[in-house]
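User: My instructor asked us to take a sequence, write out its structure as tokens, and then describe one feature of it. I'm not sure where to start. Here is the sequence I was given:
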Amino acid sequence: MNTIERGTRVDVYRNLHNGTWSVRDCQTGRVIAHMDTCSIYDAELVVQPAGRRRVLREGRKNVHAFARGYIHNPAPSWTLLKRYMRKITYNPYKAASFTYADDGGAIHNADIVALGPEGVHVYQHRSDGDPAMVPLDVWRALLEASSQKEIAKAHRRIAN
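Assistant: Let's start with the prediction itself. The structure tokens for your sequence are:
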């Protein structure tokens, strides 16, 4: 059940019942997997206003916030990449959008979203010459990698 074709457009959200990430196919609207870790690219961070209003009114959680994008499978190891990513959070009682954990700024889109046991991290490529950013061609190599060997090669490029 956890094998999903790369490039499938999905919504990913935290499953509060089992602690995993639920992966819902955008085309069918059906949950197609539950995963401990997941990564998507060309992502939109969606908060449905009516669902948020319902949470505020009733004080009960419901699925109304998720990351929508294209599944990356196999998922790269994000251990090395986290230094290039920022953690984000969503709390319907504090903000109407996803926010950066470090400064509270709103975020609505990201190049890559990594969802795992440590939360949600995002990467946005900037072309402002920031030396801490991973070159875009390396990210593309990660996204196009079809085997663990190719992923390891891209990781070595980032480490150097």
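For the description part of your assignment, you could build on this observation: The helical segments are 49-58, 136-144, 148-159. Try explaining in your own words what that tells you about the chain.
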